[in-house]
Design brief:
With 249 residues, the chain is α/β, with parallel strands linked by helices. It has a single domain, classed as Aldolase class I (TIM Barrel). The protein is built from ten helices and eight strands. Strands 1-2-3-4-5-6-7-8 form an eight-stranded parallel β-barrel, surrounded by five helices. The termini are close together. The chain binds phosphoenolpyruvate. The site of phosphoenolpyruvate has 14 residues, from strand 8.
Amino acid sequence: MHSKKKLIAGNWKMNGNLTANKSLLTAVVDGLNQAQCDVAVAVPAPYLAQVERLVSGSAIAVAAQDVSVHESGAYTGEVSASMLKEFGVRYVLVGHSERRQYHGESDVVVSRKAQRALAAGITPIVCVGETLQEFEAGDTEAVVKRQLAAVIHLNGHCISEIVVAYEPVWAVGTGRTASPEQAQAVHAVLRTQVAAASEHPDRIRLLYGGSMNAANAAQLLAQPDVDGGLIGGASLKAADFLQIIHAAR
Ligand code: PEP
């Protein structure tokens, strides 16, 4: 078992509005009590300022869902790491499977995004995971190792500062979860890989994501190499998100 605090990060995806955000976060802040884990919410960029205000003074950190590979300039629609930093962003998701799938993000792009985040003092939550086809072909290990190797290759000197989220694509938003044993097996592989590249391997947290919910969180989080969770759908319901937070100890 690793001694670091677990991290529970919500990913709202493209959901929310000013009214709903306020009631969700008010309820989560109220129910946090003495949470024993770190907590973050990854929100759509237009709501960063609102969410920063709503969580200020609480233990909840603000996260973004994406960051540009560019520093600044003529990149219409993009948001840079330094802009995120100005809004108090502590974590940013990079390489979420929906970005890889729908926006064609390659391993190299994901690695460069992680690099931009690190340079701005933001912790990248690097998402890796195999598709259903790759899972069925028995390629899980090879795929996640390739995805993580690209990030290590570009960011090796500060690899201890990243968070890794293992999210099997077949489990994201599908209601189908990896079993605790399946998650642990992949996490053990990722642990070995990052540990070999890091001077401070104990700092690196490995999250599981993919239909984690109030009912299955405790078992997943009890695995020795599962240091937290990345939660999509269940992070939009205060009671469910709080139950997951309180299962993380
Ligand atoms: C996610 O968006 O990272 C995720 C894991 O989604 P869900 O929990 O809804 O599967």
